[in-house]
Amino acid sequence: MSLPAVNPTKTEAWKALENHYQNIKEHQMQQVFSEDGKRANRFKIEWQDFYFDFSKNRITDETISLLLKLAEEVKLKEAIDLQFSGAKINKTEDRAVLHTALRNFDSLKPEVKDTLQKMQYFSEKIIGGAHKGFSGKSITDVVNVGIGGSHLGPEMVTEALKCYKNHLNVHFIANIDGDEVAEKLNRLNPETTLFIIVSKSFTTQETLVNASVIRNWFLENTSKDDIQKHFVAVSANVDKAMDFGISADNVFPMPDWVGGRFSLWSAVGLSISCAVGFKNFEAMLFGAFEADKHFKSQPFKKNIPVIMALLSVWYNNFFGAESEAVVPYSHYLHKLVPYLQQAVMESNGKSVDRNGENVNYQTGTIVWGSVGTNAQHAFFQLLHQGTKLIPTDFIGFSEPLHGNLENNNILMANLFAQTEALWEGTQLKTVESTFKHFEGNKPSNTILIKKLTPKNFGSLIALYEHKLFVQGIIWNIFSYDQWGVELGKTVAKTTLKAIENQQLSLLENASTKNLVSKIVEK
Ligand SMILES: O=P(O)(O)OC[C@H]1O[C@](O)(CO)[C@@H](O)[C@@H]1O
């Protein structure tokens, strides 16, 4: 079964939304808001520990009902059911998309159960000190070596759940930048370090080269037999991992139906399980599972990821907004934006639709942002008074983790105040000069979560995963492939050859030739 392939611009809802946009675009919506006492209660969704407030958006009841009609016309419900059914909806790679099966506690697949058990057993041995390195000492440092989806998710979660961390030091080596690798290795002791080589394909240049550099560094003072005590792999390509010198027992499998950027729930999360313990890792999976059930079962008007996606489409395709900001008011979430950038932009940065035709409408949004309140002192000026429309997600937690209520009150006051200031502006107030005028009418969503627990964090990430899927369905694109990263990889191979062999004739582009000559002529 294939995903429905409806050109969204040909739907009745799209045409109606275009007309509706003409009526709404000039409206100072904050006035509509102040005249409607019930709006804040109508445009919100409360679910478990989440309070999702989308009332400060340039929408009316009609907007929402037209967007919901759009979801219906592009057959969103059918698409959701297809994804969860395990149909090969990643058509261009001929794969199912089942990261949700990694956390489906109603019926875990036997292979998922086995991997979870293996992860638990292994991470507990590392944490408890039973796993000894070549000199008989316990492990103190764990290094995740991987890039893209084999790095961003684990690093984001390890940072987000730092409060739940144990004594192990967890590091990440992703970039091929040798300085970074050397910098990190200089601080590590081979006797007490475990390296987790994470690569779904086990063919990614950065990861394989870095892994070899690390292995050589390790072998400077050890023998090949010691590798088994210090290197494990996470991969769907067990043979390649074994070729690298890692024994089959030390390879944690990854199913083919899990895409790299959705893989933190799989054995790719081994570094997370080491950092915060398996129970917390499992709690995170459980939170994601709860979000999956919400996504699958809630009517669209009460469905957080669906509403998030529809609002995003509203701004992207009708207001012409190109980007959206994400601002978490928790320093623990400082790696959320890089994670979302891969998840969202690698998924929805597409310009060919599911029928193989070029699209003539905007698709993937640019995601950017940083943590509040720091961001207020950086780019918020542009959000408030710039010329661009940038819908923003504000994420906050009602309860602090360390009991510092005074700080948390200030933090939350700032979050709420920013959404209000963006929305209200200074419309009804007198300002001394035009320079001090705030237009307002700047949209935002607020995701207020009770507490940053592993479970809630798992839910949050899964909600964003579902949001991007819904967007892809509406835009009629394939969200789960990433052919756009391939060309650069191929060109880099030739370029490297030209550099290594000092052979400029291999290059065609005159600018690249000049640049390469600067390196080889040193
Ligand atoms: O896990 P792998 O196979 O090393 O791939 C790493 C990353 O590279 C990409 O394929 C993009 O280059 C991502 O989709 C993926 O997360």
UniProtKB/TrEMBL annotation:
Please state what class of enzyme this protein is.
isomerase
Where in or outside the cell it occurs: the entry states: Cytoplasm
The annotated pathway is: Carbohydrate biosynthesis; gluconeogenesis; Carbohydrate degradation; glycolysis; D-glyceraldehyde 3-phosphate and glycerone phosphate from D-glucose: step 2/4
Chief localization class? cytoplasm
Q: Which InterPro entries match?
A: G6P_Isomerase, G6P_Isomerase_C, Phosphoglucose_isomerase_CS, SIS_dom_sf, SIS_PGI_1, SIS_PGI_2
Which residues act catalytically here? E346 (proton donor), H377, K489
PROSITE patterns (alphabetical): P_GLUCOSE_ISOMERASE_1, P_GLUCOSE_ISOMERASE_2, P_GLUCOSE_ISOMERASE_3
Q: Does the keyword Magnesium apply?
A: no
Q: Where are the transmembrane segments?
A: none
UniProt entry tagged with the keyword Secreted: no
Catalytic reactions on record: alpha-D-glucose 6-phosphate = beta-D-fructose 6-phosphate
Any idea which GO molecular function terms this record carries? glucose-6-phosphate isomerase activity
Supply the alphabetized keyword list: Cytoplasm, Gluconeogenesis, Glycolysis, Isomerase
Query: Could you tell me the EC number(s) of this protein?
Result: 5.3.1.9
Q: Origin, by domain of life?
A: Bacteria
Q: Which Pfam families match?
A: PGI
Q: Cross-referenced HAMAP family, in alphabetical order?
A: G6P_isomerase (MF_00473)
Protein family membership? Belongs to the GPI family.
Describe the function of this protein: Catalyzes the reversible isomerization of glucose-6-phosphate to fructose-6-phosphate.
- Put simply, this protein is called Glucose-6-phosphate isomerase
Q: Which organism is it from?
A: Aequorivita marisscotiae
